[in-house]
Amino acid sequence: MMSDKQNELTPDAFIAANESKVNKRWYPRFHIAPRVGWCNDPNGFAYFGGQYHFFYQYYPYEPKWGPMHWAHATSKDLVHWQRQPVALFPDHPYDADGCFTGSGIEKDGKLYLLYTGHVDLLKKPGQPDRIETQNLAVSVDGIHFEKSEKNPVIKLPQNVSTGEDHHFRDPKVWQHEGRYYAVVGAQTADEVGQVLVFESENLEDWKFKHVMAKAHGNQGFMWECPNFAEFDGHEALILSPQGVKPEGKRYLNLHQSVSMLGKMDYESGIFYHDAFHILDHGFDFYAPQVTQTPDGRCVMIGWLAMWESAMPEQADGWSCQMTVPRELHYRKDRLVTPPAKELAELRKAAHVVPETVLTDETSFDDWSFETGEICADFDLTEAEGLAIHFTAGFDDSVSFMVEKASGIVTLSRKSAATGRREERYAQLPAGENHLSLRVYEDRSSLEFFLNDGDIVMSTRFYPKTEERVVVLEPQEGTVRMTDGVFYELDDIFA
Q: What distance in Å separates the CA atoms of residue 405 and residue 154, rounded to the nearest whole number?
């Protein structure tokens, strides 16, 4: 909790007074991160007034989770951002212990935020340990927000039980044929994940429609941060289930983020869908949120962290960051998430490598920067695979490896918590000879996009030195790099 001295300052005044104390050794240049303090879930991602508005869960007073605020940044191009004042903070009885995750939408020239108000209770037998309701805040200028006098605008329906824990949060609002819909994450009384859908004509008066979807089998005890996504003529329910048990090389993180392709039946309020599909196979990705661009694309940003991660940057006065924006597309009968096309606008100097035949480990000095983007194409016809190592000093490395015969893709790192190597896995079709890879490296993070978003794997990385070396290692044979370039990238808050 904040000290009395902290409590004397507004959130923005505290940020201004303490931002200079932050150690920037691992602080990103082209990812959104808190100026000081803690951040987690993306919030309120929306296009309004000719620019994108992006919010996130925020606690400015310490680099660890606390009573949630909403930090705010705006952008005209999705890549260059301007910081704005803190948009929401706990100041009413219905959100006294946090303004939890929610979403944003434009209506009648105003920006509406629909968010969860969280109140902690003293746990008593047979009673909930929290109260969670959905609330509105409205802005004319997109910067200053007023909470609605009608709050809470959505309460848990009387005929729906979430059990004693009362998980009921993270509304995502969208419009369809002149009406508004909001999907809210929840669980059943017997601790099975579910999402509920509500309907409104004006964003203030809501009625419960139906249980939109529900977990079956090994699909978790709570469905957080649901998103209804529309892209390329298809629909998906995107959510972050808690409590999914590992299955072989799948679901190895504490919590997951998945998509389910399907079709929304607006008459019944039921989303008919297929199975879970993992959105990011790496170590650090959670609670993504989507928005529509003016040209009709669906774009997603996630939290580039995970609850069990060590987060050593906390010692530097800040904690956690967001991913780069990713597009949602339908390809090969599935959802894929390549980097947003706007990211090319960040490119500055290009370090091009001519076509190269790799027969042994080869380091690329021109690619050895703290931040930048690697774009490379590889021909594995005469090899059994390829490994790419990002090293910093003797003992710090992240490795990305493709095994051709099995199609197994492995991301390996040394745990910042235990010091031991750990792995995450994804699956390509067996026998693929051609690989296209984009890697975004930003001081303490790496995001790998394989074959234009067919596979995405993200991780944090905390080198103890600024020395960086990129090493390519063919596996049992010869690899031909037909294209290779490293781009230095602009600072998004420059």
A: 52
